Amino acid sequence: MSPLRPVDEVVEELLGQVVVSKQTESRSLDDALNCCAASDIHSSVNVPPDDNSAMDGYALAFSDAMLDHAYPVSDRIPAGYVGRKLEPGTVARIFTGASIPEGADTVVMQENTKLVDQQVELTQLPNKGENVRRRGQDIEQGSIILTRGDKLTAKTLGLVASVGVPSVEVKKPLKVAIMSTGDELVEPGKPVGPGQIYNSNRYTLSAMIRTLGFEVVDLGIVEDTRQATLEVLERAAGKADVIMTSGGVSVGEEDHVKDAVETLGRVDLWKMAIKPGKPLAYGNVAGKPFFGLPGNPVSTFVTFHVVARPYLMAMQGFSRIQPETTTAVSDFEFTGGTRREYLRVRLHNRDGATIAERFSNQGSGIMTSVVWADALAIADVGQTISPGDALTVLPLTGL
User: Does residue 188 have a cis bond before it (omega within 30 degrees)?
Assistant: First the structure.
């Protein structure tokens, strides 16, 4: 019997076989969410474009600032307008975001002023340049605001829009074909017969793929025959960049995926030291990468997140491909076995510390544990965990 392969070793080997997609396309900002930037994005403008006010208040020359002095108001400057040159010895009423007029260099917020006979008195002296946002303070003209491989998120799309860029060159989103195998599977909405179950993995996989910004080619449930499996795999290779199945890669006589993939390409069946999960098939179908994930619902979820996700992110061209980890404090006892285990946990804040609470049933078929959890805590081979121990956790943000 071949030894179980460490998870990190398998992921490293898979990443070493990635061929990064070179296909790009231009997309409007509205259509670029979760896409991968195909090139660096430069700013052609300064942000802000001019010195402007950070507060509602009064603009003045700092050299004129004094207490117990009444200033005439010589101008009123709302945002979007350029005021007149400030007359010496006066102040200009100014609003947040409005350009600082020539002759002024400081803004006194209105809370530190008072009106006396339509003139303004300062109740507190400002510092020079106070409440002034300098030209280019946020972004300087010519600077790189995003680099190739960055993910276009709500935050970064807003950044791109702030420099006036209406569209971006992105990596064309990968098309990932998914197929489910097993005559026991039934689609939701239909009655289940004896020995049958609803096809949940199809929807889990599809949602995780789309959440990452990729396109799904859904090939549905494949009949448990060699011919049907061959036909669907050939169709998948013609439509998608990556092919992914859940279940059907064991050595059972009704599992035809492994044989079909070997007929059309190549497949390796690896046994990883991971729980939930263990069997993982990887290879190619007519030159297209193929993943055969284990069939148990939690195993599908975990192996996609830990193994398949980094591969897809690297193939798309993202610079950050691994899910980010954080730390938490255990409130439970656990002893690791012969496989690295990804425990479903929920994070709480207790006295300023992040506490990880473990779901009671960690079985690979208990999908309620995934819904309940908001992170996966990593328990390495043979690791003993006691309450108060530090844990490495993978947050399940957005999944």
Answer: no
Which pLDDT tens digit goes with each residue over 162-180?
999 999 999 999 999 999 8
Q: pTM for this structure?
A: 0.88
Report d(CA 152, CA 85) in Å as an integer.
Answer: 41
Convert 87-133 into a string of H (helix), E (strand) and C (coil): CCCCEEEECCCCECCCCCCEEEEHHHEEEECCEEEECCCCCCCCCEE
- Taking the C-alpha atoms of residue 185 and residue 204, their distance in angstroms, rounded to an integer, is 14
Residue 77, C-beta contacts closer than 8 angstroms, at least 6 positions apart: 59, 83, 92, 93, 94, 95, 98, 99, 101
Class (C level, CATH) for 26-46+139-171? alpha beta
CA distance 384 to 372: 24
Helix (H, G, I), strand (E, B) or coil at 366: coil
Lowest mean pLDDT among 117-121, 210-214, 224-228, 241-245: 224-228
Q: Amino acid letter at 147?
A: T
List of residues 6+ apart from 111 with CB closer than 8 A: none
What is the token pair recorded at 115?
């009106």
Pair of tokens at residue 364: 């690979």
Please state, in angstroms and rounded to a whole number, the distance separating the CA atoms of residues 374 and 346: 5
Cα separation of 93 and 107, whole Å? 9
CATH number of 52-133: 2.170.190.11
Q: Maximum distance among all alpha carbons in the chain? A: 95
| Rg from Cα positions in the chain | 30
What CATH number does the domain located at 7-23+173-316 have? 3.40.980.10
Residue 147: exposure state from Cβ atoms within 10 A (0-12, 13-18, ≥19): exposed
**Cross-strand bridge partners of residue 389:** none
C-alpha to C-alpha distances, 305 to 84, 310, 314, 342, 381, nearest whole angstrom: 59, 8, 13, 11, 19
Of 43, 312, 25, the C-alpha closest to 170 is: 25
Q: Is 297 helix (H, G, I), strand (E, B) or coil?
A: helix
Q: Which of 63, 52, 73, 68 is nearest to 124 (CA)?
A: 68
